[in-house]
Amino acid sequence: MNSGENKMWLDEKGILNFAPSGIHDKQQAQTQKEMVLTYLCQVTGSLNCIIDLNNVGRPSLEARKVYNELSNHPQIGKLAIVGMAAIAQAVATIVFGAPSGPKMSFFKTREEAIKWLNS
After folding, report:
1. Pair 96, 71: CB distance under 8 Å
2. Residue range of the domain that includes 88
3. Sheet of strand 2-3: strand arrangement
4. pTM of the model
5. Which helix (H) or strand (E) holds 40?
């Protein structure tokens, strides 16, 4: 599924991939949330996610609230954040909260993220 320049898909390994682009407002975040919830209805158990922040700007406060709520959904498993630029890490920390325990980790490449998600 695509929403503007944002891309979201469930890959062959059952990992939800999300590559947002640009700056997100509450409406865009709600659209992305609905897309994620659609994917969650298609799986049993939890869903691990790769979020590529290489092309994203800072989301609005309202969008951050929506994404933070979504990241705490009981069916969301591990969150692998790709994009080692300082801004990507800052955005992820602002949006999803500080990494706590094994649920979220940062990676330079998608391959590193997949390896961690499969561990």
Report:
1. yes
2. 2-117
3. 2-3, 6-10, 16-19, 47-52, 76-82, 104-107
4. 0.82
5. helix 26-40
